[in-house]
Amino acid sequence: QNIIVVAHGQANDPFWSVVKNGAAMAGEHTGATVDFRAPEIFDMVAMGQLIEAAVNQQPDGIVVSIPDADALGPSIRRAVEAGIPVISMNAGADVAAEMGALLHVGQSEFDAGVTAGERLAEMGGTKAICVNQEVGNVSLDQRCAGFAEGFGNPVQVIPTQNDPTEVQSRVRAALESDPEVDTVLGLGASLVGEPAVAAVEALGRDDVLIASFDLSAGFLEAVSDGRAAFAIDQQQYLQGYLPVVFLALHAEYGLMPGGDVPSGPNLVTQDAAGLVIDLSAQGIR
Amino acid sequence: MTDPIIHMDGIKKHFGNVIALNGVTFDVRPGECHCLLGDNGAGKSTFIKTMSGVHKPTEGTITFEGRPMQFGSPRDAMEAGIATVFQDLAMIPLMSVTRNFFMGREPTKGRFVKRFDLETANRITMEKMKSMGINLRAPDQAVGTLSGGERQTVAIARAVHFGAKVLILDEPTSALGVRQTSNVLATIARVRSQGVGVVFISHNVRHAMAVGDRFTVLNRGQTLGTADKGHIDAAELQDLMAGGQEMAKLEGSLGGTV
Amino acid sequence: MTDPIIHMDGIKKHFGNVIALNGVTFDVRPGECHCLLGDNGAGKSTFIKTMSGVHKPTEGTITFEGRPMQFGSPRDAMEAGIATVFQDLAMIPLMSVTRNFFMGREPTKGRFVKRFDLETANRITMEKMKSMGINLRAPDQAVGTLSGGERQTVAIARAVHFGAKVLILDEPTSALGVRQTSNVLATIARVRSQGVGVVFISHNVRHAMAVGDRFTVLNRGQTLGTADKGHIDAAELQDLMAGGQEMAKLEGSLGGTV
Amino acid sequence: MATQADASVDERIRTETITTRLMKRPELGAIGGVILVTIFFFFTASPAMFTLAGIMNFMTPAAQLGILGIAAALLMIGGEFDLSIGSMVAFAGMIFGVLVVNLGLPLILAIPLTMAFAAMVGAVNGAIVIRTGLPSFIVTLAFLFILRGASLVGLKMFTGGATQLRGVRDAVAGDWLTPLFSGHAFGGLFRWMAEQGWVATLASGTPTVPGIPVSILWFIAVTLVATFVLLRTPAGNWIFATGGDRHAASNSGVPVRRVKISLFMLTACAAALVAIITVIDTGSTDARRGFMKEFEAIIAAVIGGCLLTGGYGSAIGAFFGAIIFGMVTIGLTYTTFDQDWFQVFLGGMLLLAVVFNNAIRKRVTGER
Amino acid sequence: MATQADASVDERIRTETITTRLMKRPELGAIGGVILVTIFFFFTASPAMFTLAGIMNFMTPAAQLGILGIAAALLMIGGEFDLSIGSMVAFAGMIFGVLVVNLGLPLILAIPLTMAFAAMVGAVNGAIVIRTGLPSFIVTLAFLFILRGASLVGLKMFTGGATQLRGVRDAVAGDWLTPLFSGHAFGGLFRWMAEQGWVATLASGTPTVPGIPVSILWFIAVTLVATFVLLRTPAGNWIFATGGDRHAASNSGVPVRRVKISLFMLTACAAALVAIITVIDTGSTDARRGFMKEFEAIIAAVIGGCLLTGGYGSAIGAFFGAIIFGMVTIGLTYTTFDQDWFQVFLGGMLLLAVVFNNAIRKRVTGER
Ligand SMILES: Nc1ncnc2c1ncn2[C@@H]1O[C@H](COP(=O)(O)OP(=O)(O)OP(=O)(O)O)[C@@H](O)[C@H]1O
Ligand SMILES: Nc1ncnc2c1ncn2[C@@H]1O[C@H](COP(=O)(O)OP(=O)(O)OP(=O)(O)O)[C@@H](O)[C@H]1O
Ligand SMILES: [Mg+2]
Ligand SMILES: [Mg+2]
């Protein structure tokens, strides 16, 4: 069988490379050919076109993420119209069914943000910054928005670029200019979480709570050492693996689970962190 | 004597700390060829650039046809009827001969949409170049691939074609062959007889004497004075042009005038 | 008669569909000034560019000091001892006079780290320019802000300074004042007497006659022939240079030779 | 003694074939690249790529990029850059979205207003470049940031906190101008062709290609107009002259300032046009729209033979440049190469395409 | 009759003050921008920004950008661009990481090997540009994609599937060369100053600033060397000449090809240096390192007064350009402005800084 995955995150994004690894592993396990496609930057127009390109190839199934239902709707409906089974993953839980997707595997970014916010507020956070390395990327914006809601206390979004040195300097600047900030949430573990830990260490503050979305080995180490609070894991490997398996089974036997599969959220805290470091270093978590 | 078309009075021009012109007065009358002479670096090109709207004078006044005038851009000067051959020719190397020839004043055709009439333009270009003694291979050859003299001829032909009232020529014959030079000198004589005022800059005393009616000599940014034709001979003029400094010992074989 | 330093045989050069040179033979002997003359677009500049390594000939052979030679780049030619003043001067407008003067052959000082010896360079530049009749304001003025003649003088002074065996001058006097022109002609006479072979391109018959030992005339990419000094007079030469075509009616007042 | 030249037969010119003459035009240089890329995908990609649906599929992004690329080409020929067009796509999209969704204006008002906004920003860009004499690279770079930031702030303001504005499709649904900017043209024709069996149909019976996407028609129209302006009007001559040497052009009487400001306004309007087309098409806009499009536009123009130094290039070149870029980016998804290798291939194909263009042109024109 | 000129007192020159002479230098133009930006933040930012710790904080990213910016400036003066340096940071980082972590090489071998790899890629870039005569913009753009893709593929290969390679810090911990490329210099001096109470200390008693980050020292060293080379060596003269007019330079005997290829190798090595410093500092490398750094480097060079057309600019200018860019990006975090406005401010401040530079220089030199 031939299954095409169209995602909105790039293959070199640490988060999405795990999704891709999951999809590839599913392909190995089921014997299906899996093609992973993504636009080179967060671009809904380009992503719509990639879905159309996938439809043209008449695969046995398409897996998509739906960060913008308006923009991707027509292309997904075309896939459904063409009789191709579609499963959505990661983003778009709320709209998947109405677009004609068979089911959704994933977790709402917003809800994950809420969970993180609630947890950090519980741990005593009173004022937070949410470090966003790609402002305007809707899924990242939703993480911050959910966090702000769950946290309940003031949250400032700090936009940065894709450079760990710069992130470290900006986190440090934010902490220095407003000493009341005691909570840092990063939207990516290697790009934001690790430099944030370094910045806090350089400032010599041990009262700052640091949490981050996604996993990276370095950040997990910090969590297990107690230098960071926790990492939010969507178990995105599943978001790549399960839809492919489902579609392969669907193509072969017509099987399909009866409802959406929530893949997370799963908070990785100090006690669990040590166990996942190695898996993270292999691109599985 | 007729009134001057353009009269420049006490023109000064500074570039940062460099003083290029330090009070120059000059005028052109219709139907005369006024030669502007002087040593290298005397300020001739700077002066005529002020006249044709490229530079704004630091000090001094310009009177055009009796009214004080400030040219905001070379286009203003062109519209007033002044056409110039600059020493650097003001050509775009990558563009074709025709496109350079008509740059800024393209002939158009078409009723609603004004199209660039390339056929007419090509024809005129080939004709004018031929009348100056250059047989172009094709009007769409890039100017950058022309020989030095061919390029200079394009600039001259263009200025003559558009020079309505004043024609300024900054060392127009410097790169020209003998045939082309005599064509240019003949052209100057012709347009002058049509009532156009010509400003002619040259380092060749013989060329200046051949077509000039008046001679103004610049030296180190200042006027040394103006002489009418017949009141000065070639040797005197040459002496003035050299800025009064002695010349290398080769004159004998050159017969007095270089 | 001494052997030629450089001998070019049957040189052809095509640019795409344009035939610029169609078989030109030419040589230069030490201590002579060989004038290359011809109409605009005859191919003189293209020819000397082939000689100085800028263009590779489409056909033809170059013999340098008796050995066949293919210059891969102008640098090769310079290292062999050929210095050239190109018609477009090959100057960088944004760079200072000194930096242009020594471009590609900077004097250095310092034992371990070879530094560009700017003091020496400035001094030499000012001196050489002065000896050509130009008083520069400062050696660090940008070449782009020099007057046309000043700029040409920089190029000539540079070539003379570095011209070890052959000195090629493509219309070196075109933008020069009378004083500077006679300086350049005197300089040519001087280097020639030191045994350097000079190739001199000019449209001015009088300049050519003043310094030339032999005269080769090009026309439309081909040689019309070579004449020795004394075997040809100015009027004949001028006729050849015009490519045999008739000239505009102004000659009378120019006294035969333009 | 001298061979007297005849004007019609000049012995200093070798005869050349028509192909040679054609290949010399900068417009046609980029065709070589298109052919090479086509051949490459012909052998490596799924045959679906060269079905009608496949072609429309890669032509749509090429068209959107191409509209920007042609405007960028004109500006580059005129000697300047505009790095703010990508952000302008987001900004104009935001303005347009707010006008139709929040203010409920009909397209006949919303489109001219959006264009006017864009043109104004373009004029400001141009005026700053001309007044200060700063390189346009740095001035428009500032606007790259400013407009991108303004889109974010504006979107958050008008949506109450989100970076995505939705609901445009509903808002313009009934408008009589909508078909001009979105959807497909010649739908009837394609349905008819599907009935005749000439065009493949989906399971539901509708043709796989419902028509020609209007963005492709806009793309072609923009190419034709730009080519006409460049080659056949005085304005075109002024653009070449301005970019070739602004001092020489100005000294020859070309109104250099006017030309440059108009070009900046033009690129901004091209960005607004792309914004309008994509916003209506996707029904939404977000703060990252058009990200990096400024560079892709310049890339398309450069592949198409424009010189970065100005004064040389063509609109048709940029047309093919955009098609090459679109074909390579979409085409790789039709192949079975691993996505990890995507960028390596993209880079390699671009390089191959331009080297090939160049080699062919040199061979044909006999340069060097 | 003519006034005989005396060489020392030329009546054609007005006297000018030392300030005027100084301000004319392109190096110093960018200082105006630094001052303006400093004043701006002095009034708007938290005082923490201008403590010693705050200065080190914004100087660190400025230094890493600056090393690239100066290399980019040299290349731009030489008339070319290198768009692949950002990707080269990722690629060289990957090579370096693999050498020290997977192969366990000591730094004395790993660093020269990494540099050699980078230089080789730079030479390939340069050779293609020179051989084909294509604009370097498009050639290095291809390498932007190729190297970025190759880093991803390589990282996945060597880590068994992840995009991040870690463990560098442990691998180089004991190496005697490590202090040259990571951490802080003059640690003893700062501790002593802290004991004297001259430098603020943390609660634990260690100084807030443990020393000068070595990247800043590298930054200064690179600036000094580049300035020396540009202004005081034959090579510098060749770079200016090559960028000013490559035909004129070549005709005057400058080895244009050699200059260009060396410059491409140099920028690649600068990228490798930044990669080594950041990889050792962060202890890891990933596939997105150096993203967009090529543009930031060009921005720094242009703010610092380099012309995109080549032949003009300075290393000190790029030095200040990088500092301006670093101050603005980090500085806004110290202010109380809503961070949504970040990009608007970034763009606005950049524009202000360069306009200010320019205005001052024009006023001083009396141009126009
Ligand atoms: N933009 C400028 N900046 C500084 N100095 C300048 C500038 N333009 C001209 N100069 C100086 O002003 C003086 C006059 O220059 P100009 O070009 O007018 O001389 P010219 O009389 O035309 O000489 P030539 O006969 O050599 O063409 C020269 O010494 C030149 O160096
Ligand atoms: N790169 C090129 N491409 C096409 N044609 C060229 C090129 N270079 C020169 N030509 C043509 O070759 C011919 C010879 O040019 P060249 O510059 O050698 O003439 P020249 O004898 O130096 O003339 P002048 O006295 O005007 O300087 C000219 O007709 C010119 O148009
Ligand atoms: Mg002059
Ligand atoms: Mg010539």
UniProtKB/TrEMBL annotation, chains B, C:
Highest taxon, organism lineage: Bacteria
Keywords, comma-separated and alphabetical: ATP-binding, Nucleotide-binding
Pfam families with a match to the protein in the record: ABC_tran
GO terms for MF: ATP binding; ATP hydrolysis activity
Gene3D superfamilies xrefs: P-loop containing nucleotide triphosphate hydrolases
Ranges for domain ABC transporter: 6-245
Name this polypeptide is given: Sugar ABC transporter ATP-binding protein
Native organism: Paracoccus liaowanqingii
From TrEMBL, chains D, E:
Segments crossing the lipid bilayer: 28-46, 58-77, 83-101, 136-155, 176-194, 214-240, 261-280, 292-309, 316-335, 341-360
Subcellular locations according to the entry: Cell membrane
UniProt keywords, alphabetically: Cell inner membrane, Cell membrane, Membrane, Sugar transport, Transmembrane, Transmembrane helix, Transport
Any one annotated GO CC term: plasma membrane
Domain of life: Bacteria
Membrane protein topology class: Multi-pass membrane protein
InterPro entries: ABC_transp_permease
Pfam families cross-referenced by the UniProt entry: BPD_transp_2 (PF02653)
MF annotations from Gene Ontology: transmembrane transporter activity
Major location category of this protein: membrane
Function noted in UniProt: Part of the binding-protein-dependent transport system for D-xylose. Probably responsible for the translocation of the substrate across the membrane.
Name this protein carries in UniProt: Xylose transport system permease protein XylH
Taxonomic lineage: Bacteria, Pseudomonadati, Pseudomonadota, Alphaproteobacteria, Rhodobacterales
